[in-house]
Amino acid sequence: MGDNTSYVLASQKRNRSDDFDGADAKKLMVQGEADPAAALASARHEFGEHGGVNMSIEASATFTVMEPETMRRMFAGELGPDRDFFIYSRHFNPTVLNLSRLMAALEGTEAAYCTASGMSAIAAVLLQLCSHGGHVVASRTLYGGTHALLSHFLPRTCQISTSFVEVTDLEMVDAAIVEGKTKVLYFESVSNPTLTVANIPELCHVAHRKGVTVVVDNTFAPMVLSPARLGADVVVHSISKFISGGADIIAGAVCGRAELVNAMMDLQQGAIMLLGPTMNAKVAFELSERIPHLGLRMKEHSERALEFARRLKNVGLRVIYPGLEDHPQHQLLKSIHNKEYGYGGLICVDMETEERANRFMSHLQNHGQFGFMAVSLGYYETLMSCSGSSTSSELTSEEKHLAGISPGLVRMSIGYIGTFEQKWSQLHKALATLHDCAYKS
Asked: Peptide bond preceding 193: is omega within 30 degrees of 0, i.e. cis?
């Protein structure tokens, strides 16, 4: 098969007694394609045990060897998953490794490995990169769970401190980095929930000048943005969201250099290996079947979000969406995004107070059948939540104010079920009912 030896059918099994000399090749997969969809199409396709077009699920917790010496060599690090040697599924699992190759292709990194949740991916990366007493500089606008990890858990357990900054203020970011002490600059490509777009290339330039590793959470913008191609060292995901698309799976991923991913799987020092946020092989299989149509889904999410944002703005609501020209980072996003996939599937409507936000969401769900009041995002139905009292509730009132999170900020993950005009009719009906109720009161 020439240069495409990585595409060898999985049914062509090697003899488990084969003896390979030399150390493992450390790179799990290298992708050079600039477009996420092209990279996914170029990724290794794993076939089923009996020639099926879909891979077989390797559900085993442990793996056999033909010779005792082989096991010794695996534990010594001489034989590994790149040559089809597996030890135990808390370490590498073939099905999870296949999903990880797809994630590496998606994000344009050398390697990736998948975990049981997005938070476990974030925590494992930070613990791998920061030692006791370390320092992180992070955006002050983050998912509430990540903010709590950085502001409460890591200081208590590891004395890892975090300076929270306005990520759009490059001078503030630069001033917060303590050369020689700061290990990580952490931010979201598109912030949760305010939809602030990070200037990834410039932030990477600031951090790298001082020897700091850049970790970017790209959960809100898969396909839309490619942080690693813009300079980021590590990309993390909650796969539970857009990548899964079904609101039925909890999963995460770490994408980065092969050296980092292998270090995180190291038997003695690896954060993923030793903390054990193991992804189930059956979950990995399901997710591998969904990634090929992620691009199609993201296009539809983005197209509908843009049109809903325009129409909601036209009826007088205060709408926040990076695809609108009045968004502060619209031109920035326009210059760095993967244009085919639009500006993302999330919009925010600021109703100013929590009471008005709750009334707004209640009418959209219960009178217009437009969407559901639920946290999370990336589902085929529209999901709505008042961020300040839900997914950002871990932040104090002062922290929410600094992060720009209004008490009435409604985050909407725009779905794609039904026709667009059908969904707009439902939304418009709910708005009319809301207006009538407000008028009568």
From this structure: yes
The CA distance from 395 to 399, in Å, is: 6
Phi, psi of 200 (to 5 degrees): -55, -50
Q: What angle do CA 268, 117, 30 make, to 5 degrees?
A: 65
User: Could you tell me the pTM of the whole model?
Assistant: 0.90
Label residue 438 by pLDDT band (50, 70, 90).
Answer: low
Contact assessment for residue 201 and residue 334, using Cβ atoms and an 8 Å cutoff: no
CB 101 within 8 A of CB 261: no
Give the Å distances, CA to CA, from 173 to 184, 203, 204, 227, 251.
Answer: 12, 8, 11, 18, 30
Alpha-carbon torsion angle 64, 66, 72, 75, nearest 10: -30
| Residue (of 175, 149, 145) closest to 161 by Cα position | 149
Residue spans of the domains in the chain: they are 27-292, 294-440
Half-sphere exposure (Cβ direction) of 265: Cα atoms closer than 13 Å: 31
Q: Is residue 403 very low, low, confident or very high in pLDDT (cuts 50, 70, 90)?
A: confident
Tens of pLDDT, residue by residue over 200-257, are 999 999 999 999 999 999 999 999 999 999 999 999 999 999 999 999 999 999 999 9
Pick the more confident residue, 157 or 4: 157
Q: Which amino acid is located at 261 in the chain? A: V
DSSP 266-317: -TTT-HHHHH--BPPHHHHHHHHHHGGGHHHHHHHHHHHHHHHHHHHHHTT-
Pairwise CA distance, residues 236 & 374, whole Å: 23
Distance of CA 391 to CAs 98, 144, 210, Å?
A: 31, 6, 33
Q: Which residues does 27 contact at the CB level (< 8 Å), separation at least 6?
A: 82, 110, 111, 258
Determine if residue 130 is left, alpha or beta; phi over 0 gives left, psi from -120 to 50 gives alpha, anything else beta.
beta
Q: Helical H runs in 341-403?
A: 354-366, 397-403
Under CATH, what is the fold of the domain 27-292?
Answer: Aspartate Aminotransferase; domain 2 (3.40.640)
Fold of the domain spanning 294-440: Aspartate Aminotransferase, domain 1 (3.90.1150)
In tens, the pLDDT along 91-111 reads 999 999 999 999 999 999 999
